[in-house]
């Protein structure tokens, strides 16, 4: 009896390091959300060069907020949020190497930190190389952000207690293949959308519009396949909800873009709500991409569980 009592007392304590690691992973994801929105607002308002200094001490930037323009404050809020996400990424990667026994997850956390660092460097180069590359590097910077965010979400998923719990999802090679394909389709939509936002190319805009129909149909089919595999139920709901929001925001953003094409001065008359709508379209697309990656991971975990059971 004494041995049983001692064992039950030790087990909850042993879970504390993993719980802390997962909490850090969730904190990093949550911290990245305002970073995404602020980055989208920088593009929407066209204030990426509000401060032509590529690197500014965060404390110095805070001291300079007073009396500066709205564009300057948004741009530096974006940079400060980036600093905070970087610190969270360092803590997360370090905690994984200290408390996590799964080597692949340790390297995934390290990869997430390296991606955060690469995204930060792209942000610096976007400013310092603006005279040479113009909006091209800004487009690359914005297109790379969904990859970083999806990686952070993946770390949070894999460090959760639910990830170690056996699931009943059936092994479906078709689901695995289709989930990978949809990750590519959704990401391509984000890349095309970034080209529309940064470069305003009419041909790319047409491709982005047509791609929206393909992505929506493909995601609905993916959800159907996942339901038939008896798994990923909560992920299905998240994808469906985000898809509905993204379609609504996409339609509104498209009309706003067309209005600016035919009436160049219309952009000067857009309200704050219109700016948030356009920025929200980017953020919702990034969240949808991350949710699709999660479903892909769930589908492949079902295959691994089936192999173990066999």
Q: How does this structure look, described?
A:
It contains eleven helices and no strands. The chain is mainly alpha-helical and 310 residues long. It folds into two domains: 13-165; 167-310. The longest helix is centred in the C-terminal third of the chain and has 38 residues, at 272-309. It is globular.
**Helix and strand run:** HHHHHHHHHHH
Number of helices: 11
State the end-to-end distance.
36 Å
Question: How does the helix and strand content classify structurally?
Answer: mainly alpha
Indicate the topology.
Blueprint lengths: L1 H13 L1 H30 L12 H6 L6 H30 L3 H26 L1 H4 L1 H24 L14 H27 L2 H27 L4 H30 L9 H38 L1
Helix pairs in contact: 2-4, 2-7, 2-11, 4-5, 5-7, 7-8, 7-11, 8-9, 8-11, 9-10, 10-11
Summary?
The chain has eleven helices and no strands. By secondary structure, it is mainly alpha-helical. Helix 2 runs antiparallel to helix 11, helix 8 runs antiparallel to helix 11 and helix 9 (202-228) packs antiparallel against helix 10.
Descriptive labels:
mainly alpha, 2 domains, 0% strand, disordered N terminus, disordered C terminus
């Amino acid at each position: 009896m004494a041995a049983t009592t001692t064992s039950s007392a030790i087990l909850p304590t042993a879970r504390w390091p993993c719980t802390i690691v997962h909490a850090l992973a969730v904190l990093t994801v949550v911290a990245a959300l305002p970073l995404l929105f602020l980055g989208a607002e920088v593009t929407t308002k066209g204030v990426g060069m509000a401060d032509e200094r590529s690197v500014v001490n965060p404390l110095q930037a805070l001291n300079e907020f007073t009396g500066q323009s709205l564009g300057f404050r948004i741009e530096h809020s974006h940079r400060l949020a980036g600093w905070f996400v970087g610190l969270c990424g360092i803590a997360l990667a370090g905690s994984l190497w200290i408390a996590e026994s799964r080597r692949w997850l340790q390297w995934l956390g390290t990869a997430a930190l390296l991606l955060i660092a690469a995204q930060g460097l792209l942000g610096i180069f976007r400013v310092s190389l603006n005279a040479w590359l113009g909006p091209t590097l800004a487009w690359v910077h914005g297109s790379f952000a969904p990859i970083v965010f999806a990686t952070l979400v993946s770390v949070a998923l894999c460090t959760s207690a639910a990830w170690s719990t056996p699931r009943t999802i059936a092994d479906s090679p078709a689901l695995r293949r289709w989930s990978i394909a949809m990750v590519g389709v959704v990401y391509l939509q984000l890349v095309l959308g970034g080209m529309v936002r940064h470069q305003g190319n009419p041909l790319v805009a047409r491709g982005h519009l047509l791609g929206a129909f393909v992505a929506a149909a493909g995601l609905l089919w993916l959800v159907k396949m996942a339901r038939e595999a008896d798994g990923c139920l909560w992920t299905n709901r998240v994808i469906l909800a985000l898809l509905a929001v993204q379609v609504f925001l996409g339609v509104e953003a498209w009309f706003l873009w067309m209005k600016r094409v035919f009436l160049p001065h219309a952009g000067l008359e857009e309200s704050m709500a219109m700016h948030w709508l356009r920025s929200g379209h980017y953020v919702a697309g990034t969240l949808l991409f991350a949710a699709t990656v999660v479903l892909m991971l769930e589908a492949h975990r079902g295959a691994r569980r089936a192999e173990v059971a066999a």
